[in-house]
From TrEMBL:
InterPro entries: MeTrfase_TrmA_AS, MeTrfase_TrmA_CS, NA-bd_OB-fold, SAM-dependent_MTases_sf, U5_MeTrfase_fam. The gene is rlmD. This is 23S rRNA (Uracil(1939)-C(5))-methyltransferase RlmD. Belongs to the class I-like SAM-binding methyltransferase superfamily. RNA M5U methyltransferase family. It comes from the Bacteria. Its EC number is 2.1.1.190. Keywords: 4Fe-4S, Iron, Iron-sulfur, Metal-binding, Methyltransferase, S-adenosyl-L-methionine, Transferase. The active site is at 448 (nucleophile), 448. One of its GO terms (biological process) is rRNA base methylation. PANTHER family: RNA M5U METHYLTRANSFERASE (PTHR11061), TRNA (URACIL(54)-C(5))-METHYLTRANSFERASE (PTHR11061:SF30). Residues 11-20 have a biased composition (Basic and acidic residues).
Amino acid sequence: MTKQKNRKSRDKQYQSEKKNSKQPPPQRNQKNLKSKGKPSATDKKQRGQNNVTIEATCSGLTSEGKGIVQWEGKQLEVANLLPGETAEVVVSKKGRFNTELKRVINPSEDRSNPPFTYYHEDAGCQIHHMNDQAQKRFKQKTIDELMKPFGKPDPIITMEHPYGYRNKNVMTFGLNNERQIVSGLYAPNTHRIIPMERSLLHDPKADEIIQTIKGMMKSFKMQPYNEDTGRGFLRHVLIRVGKFSGEIMVVLVAASPVFKGKNNFIKALRKTHPEITTILLNINDRNDSMVLGDQEKVLFGKGTITDNLCGLEFEISAKSFYQINPVQTEKLYKKAIEMAELIGEETVVDAYCGIGTIGLVASQKAGKVIGVELNKDAVRDAIRNSKRNGVKNARFYQGDAGEFMVQMAARGENADVVIMDPPRSGSDEAFLSSVVKLQPKRVVYVSCNPETQARDMKYLVNNGYEVKKIQPVDMFPQTVHVEAVTKLVRKEEAGNQ
Ligand code: SAH
């Protein structure tokens, strides 16, 4: 395969992997936000060039938070532009009419003043330019639209200090055209690195450590990995911060296990950042877009961090899923447990349980908890976490949640409440049809992708369940993503709820 083909197939793979990860995907345009009236754009065309600067007024937002403007009978999308604002926009007439906001002439009242301007909307902060109220309205509208068939969602639960909330960062390393080392994020659907030193969303300490590592690479003659030539060493650095515990994990993701100057590197890194509590080396020699490989080696500390959530203590491995915004997670879990309406006797299934967080919190109010999760490291963490917190009534199993539920249904087992929190791609028919067979009184559905959530809820509604509550939670401020927890009740029970 040629290099270009290689890259193309990787980028394609990257798109499909993104679909299966927990982060929500971009959503389709909202139907009701079509621009009205005549095109308001004034064309200031520069003859013979592909780029033109136009003056245009924004008439609405796409579901990705981009401003909609009309130009020459076409609907264009402009990042960072708000409804009602008139602006100068550079339009590239080549190919897909890409746009770039040049200058806002009349800033909207919805515009915010972020604490600092270093950002890149490609890197995830799609709506950082909206103030808190505007973000709230935007997300409420998204969820109201998607959940329309089931009823009216409650007001979204927002975050008081909506910056620096991410407890996990992954930065990719490479060389720029001047052959200087850069660290940053991949531009959407590509393997092009957008250099980024500081983000509105990251824990500032994590950004600082990444910059230290970048600075150390030169003196340690450590090269970033080059995907095209297969040369070099460091691919990514993953940092997890225990927001409550203060513990910090650094994972150096390398293409090879041969780490020259390892001891001195670790010593120097710890000297600059004594707050680091564990360092791991993860080997990823694959040619795809997964950040972490299977093999890992603890270079310093215990190889995991602990954090506190809802009054319990959780141990977290590098490869396990852990909610990225712990402040909002506590609010989300509280709502989920409320919706489960536990009185101490119920059998609760915690499906897609990760490191057991929801199940262990629920176990305090339930008869017993059965957790199921695909990732074996996460299941090991869940079992450890159960012991660590002295929980006696929870069991965790490794496997596909759908298959597990099919077997439970076949054995004629009983479940009073099913709490489900699948990845962004949602659940599947095996799982949902088994839920219907098991006939739990209540299903509590937690999701970071309301589109697949609505699809799965429709299945349950068509098969004997009724939606009783829809609670959106803003787990990802400054981004277009929205999380929701919903409560579904079996129709025979619904009368009593
Ligand atoms: N409830 C947990 C984790 C939610 S993330 C929490 O709140 O932290 C979704 C989890 O589903 C991830 O841990 C992922 O590894 C797991 N998963 C993905 N596909 C799965 C499947 N088919 N069966 C079981 N678990 C799966």
